Amino acid sequence: MRVEPKILSICLTRYLQATGRQYEAAAMLQHIAIVNVIWFLLALCFIIAFFLYKFSLKLPRSLERVFQNLIRYGKTKEDIKIPNWQLLFDVSKRCFYHFYAVSVMWNGLLLLFSLRSVVMSEALPDWLINALWCLTGRPRDAWKELHLSILLLQVLLWIHSFRRLLECLFVSVFSNVPGPLFNQLTWHQVIGTLLFIWASLLQNRSLSLLAKMRTDSSGKVETLAHKMPCGGWFNLVSCPHYLAELLIYLAMSVCCGCSSLTWWLVVLYVLCNQALAAQLCHDYYRSKFEMYPHQRKAFIPFVL
After folding, report:
1. Within this chain, do residues 34 and 57 fall inside the same structural domain, yes or no?
2. Is 80 part of a structural domain of the chain?
3. What sections of the protein cross the membrane (predicted)?
4. Are residues 194 and 294 in the same domain?
């Protein structure tokens, strides 16, 4: 069977055009920032919710209850019958200060990194640069130098979060509406739990870095020799896993409202125990490695 050259040329041209469009679409997807997609989807959800409510569009009965429960809070929810299982996810306006407290701490940490970057020309932490690259799609090198507008935006956002926190705690007067279990959480329970989670992740990350120094990419043990640790919080202290251990017990004390003398004695024991172990390990590293960073502390960054 003989194929005409003209027909073959047309088919090849169309194939190349289709392939080119596929590559163009793939390139466009690569340049779409994840953070933009997230905010767009959130806005879209609320647009749909607004029109459903504004024009009294009814969903199937079970979905309608869930929908009404999701869009309402506070006084607008008083006449809505809510299944018991959905009450678990209710958060009263009285508890909004938890959100602002977390915002103040998190944005304060980011602001500190940005100030050090702009004023002292220090690079942002690797984990933050990787997160920004993943969320925005911008190259990692683009985050090595921050613009003043970014710093100003962070300052304004932190001021806003701090002001709203103060308003929730000292200005607003909330009605006494009985709430579910989540509404009984106190600020110290929330902070203690968050600190526990973060310290646990820090300890796991630190131990993983230590393990990688003795294994290859497949996880097979290559050597049992001691090497100079680096990366993560090892750039600040010799034993971040010991610091994380202390923070885990400190977080449990915070969850108790910092009022248990017995648990504070437990924290004191862990502090002394881990500090001694960290100092011994720190001195070993310094004696074994001549190029060991002199600014690195043993246990607590910039202190001990």
Report:
1. yes
2. no
3. 31-53, 97-115, 186-204, 246-271
4. yes
- Counting as low any pLDDT under 70, the low residues of the chain are 1-31, 73-95, 172-185
pLDDT digits 0-9 by tens, 146-188: 877 788 888 988 998 999 888 888 876 665 554 544 555 677 7
Q: Looking at the domain assignment, is residue 90 inside a domain?
A: no
CB 230 within 8 A of CB 244: no
Say whether both 194 and 255 belong to one domain: yes
Q: Is residue 265, in this structure, part of any structural domain at all?
A: yes
The domain in which residue 272 lies consists of 186-304
Non-local CB neighbours of 182 within 8 Å, separated by 6+ positions: 88, 89, 90, 91, 95
Whether residue 13 is contained in a domain is answered as: yes
Alpha helix locations (H) across 1-147? 5-30, 34-54, 61-71, 84-87, 96-119, 126-136
Q: With residue 187 as reference, give the H or E element that holds it.
A: helix 187-212
Q: Which two tokens stand for residue 122?
A: 């220090």
d(CA 65, CA 192): 34
257 and 299 fall within a common domain: yes
Q: Residue 215: left (phi > 0), alpha (psi -120 to 50), or beta? A: beta
The phi and psi torsions of 236 (rounded to 5 degrees) equal: -105, -40
Query: How many structural domains comprise the chain?
Result: 3
